[in-house]
Amino acid sequence: MLWGLLIVLLLIILYALFNYFRQRKYLTVLTQEQFIEGYRKAQLVDVREQKEFDNGHIRGARNIPLTTFKQSINALRPDKPVYLYCQNTTRSTRAAAILKKHHFTDIYMLQGGFKKWTGKIDQKK
Questions:
Q1: Is 43:73 a contact under the CB 8 Å cutoff?
Q2: Is 80 helix (H, G, I), strand (E, B) or coil?
Q3: Each residue's pLDDT tens digit, 107-121
Q4: For residue 4, what pLDDT is reported?
Q5: pLDDT below 70 — which residues of the chain?
Q6: What is the DSSP letter of 75?
Q7: How many angstroms separate the CA atoms of 67 and 62, rounded?
Q8: How far apart are CA 113 and CA 90, in angstroms?
Q9: Phi, psi (5° rounding) for residue 120?
Q10: So what's the pLDDT on residue 12?
């Protein structure tokens, strides 16, 4: 029984490592400072839901929720960098994988997500 649990744990760790290194080939994680340096020249996309976006978002971002991301992929240009963020990093990581499948190559993500953002934000009143 103990060996079975150890094998399952090892498989989970190996899978996580595989995903991490595969992801690093197409997704660049940026600090807030690095993100600020480049997002004005890129397509800035908030992949959170509309209500989250309305409560506060990075100035200049457009909202394409992950739930509709595949259907909205044509709203983005593959020849321009895409800067993604969500509340943490889970949804933006998934969005990056979708972009990769659609042959986007310049994909960046905000480290720590919106919850760590200390820059300027806009809100719907």
A1: no
A2: coil
A3: 999 999 999 999 989
A4: 81
A5: 15, 18-24, 125
A6: G
A7: 15
A8: 9
A9: -70, 145
A10: 83
Q: Which of 45, 66, 86, 95 is catalytic?
A: 86
User: What is the predicted pLDDT for the residue at 7?
Assistant: 83
Q: Is 74 a catalytic residue?
A: no
Which is nearest to 50 in space by CA: 125, 124, 101? 124
Retrieve residue 30's tokens.
Answer: 């940026």
| The overall pTM is greater than 0.85 | no
Q: Give the pLDDT of residue 3.
A: 82
Find tokens 């593959």 and name the residue.
78
Q: Is 40 exposed, middle or buried (0-12, 13-18, 19+ CB in 10 A)?
A: exposed
DSSP-assigned letter for residue 59: T
Q: What angle do CA 68, 31, 73 make, to 5 degrees?
A: 20
Closest CA to 80 of 39, 27, 43, 38: 43
The neighbour count for residue 122, using CB atoms within 10 Å, is: 12
